[in-house]
């Protein structure tokens, strides 16, 4: 909707309503139809008539985190048919960092790193949160400990308005006694893959826009997680987006339409920042929790049902690509952990630039966001990452210090149909990356600076470097906890519950 001669034109519903006339009921009805909850719908409507809001100082932070969005699944990254004009806009107006990696190739541990600034193996979170019995079988907790230092709480205590909308998965909906997202430092939230009510997946942008409007009117800086569902299964695809790709085969059509819908919602939020006059004082980042999911053994497309998000198409429509990186979701090669990372902050981050050199990690986000916000880290807290504010502002650097570590749950020997999904541990230091199997008996070494796509294995040529990283990985592995600690177990475990000493 956009103002037009003192009236409001709803571009998706061609009805023109004069301000103050009975037609305003139409807007109220539309908000109701969109099912915007918790009294925030009014702020969304008010934004249509609001003038620019004075920019807050410190800056706002909007972190858009997709789910299984491959590095190659952007039109600005050369995808042959996916269209992402709004994310492409972020790239034009900001910097596209090609060497960003998440801290895990799967969902829950990747998200753990964002909130804590720590490698998720510190918490024995190595896979996705599932049923209690499955968590116990994998020596995992049932949720992330809400008592550890957390990014949203740190910013909340410093005066930020904080909110989370979209996927949670730092517990799950089948664990009814797990903490709700609000316990982790959010003033407001709407989520799925959490206990309690599941927010419909497509309400994320509307809820975020309402909260941003509220914070702007109150003169408060905001930190908003917009953790979108796409393109994770099920594919909840709408016909209006499928019609945009009439010439594609069914599975490609579903995939392209799903990403188009996500991109459109992102565009709504970006336009909302413009309407409020706060875009110049808002850091916006788009990224993904891991690489794209793909079927190991392709089969026919089917419908499926998810307890958190409902019915949709299954991974027969998972067509994500990695831009030439090896492996997919769940692999410690770059196809599993190398994901898009586009940052826009007008006047602070250079526009229309590509940084293909700087190695940034998800564990860097907490210290980076805190420095941007002018907030001190808690006493006694030491993140595994470092602030990358200099890199964001154009001071590119090669290699990586301090080292990065990964732990995953992978089979060995390598599965026949998933040849790059055998790594259970990895370490990256300086310009070297070492990947190892479960017991560290097999390793591969790559010069990740010269060879970012990991095409040439060089352990035989560099035995000293291989041994150095091998020992570094052994030492790190030995420091990890044997089991989860803290109040992180569901009552459904009974006697298995353990608490922090």
Molecular shape:
globular
Helix content: 25-40%
Count of alpha/pi helices: 13
Radius of gyration: 22 Å
Quick one: how many beta strands?
Answer: 19
What is the spatial order of strands in the main beta sheet?
8-7-9-4-10-13-5-14
CATH topology of the domain at 55-397: Alkaline Phosphatase, subunit A
Mean pLDDT: 90
SSE class: alpha/beta
Name of the CATH homologous superfamily of the domain at 55-397: Alkaline Phosphatase, subunit A
Low-confidence stretches: 1-56, 495-501
CATH class of the domain at 55-397: Alpha Beta
Strand content: 15-25%
Which architecture of the domain at 55-397 does the CATH hierarchy give at level 2?
A: 3-Layer(aba) Sandwich
Largest sheet: 8 strands, mixed
Distance between the termini: 55 Å
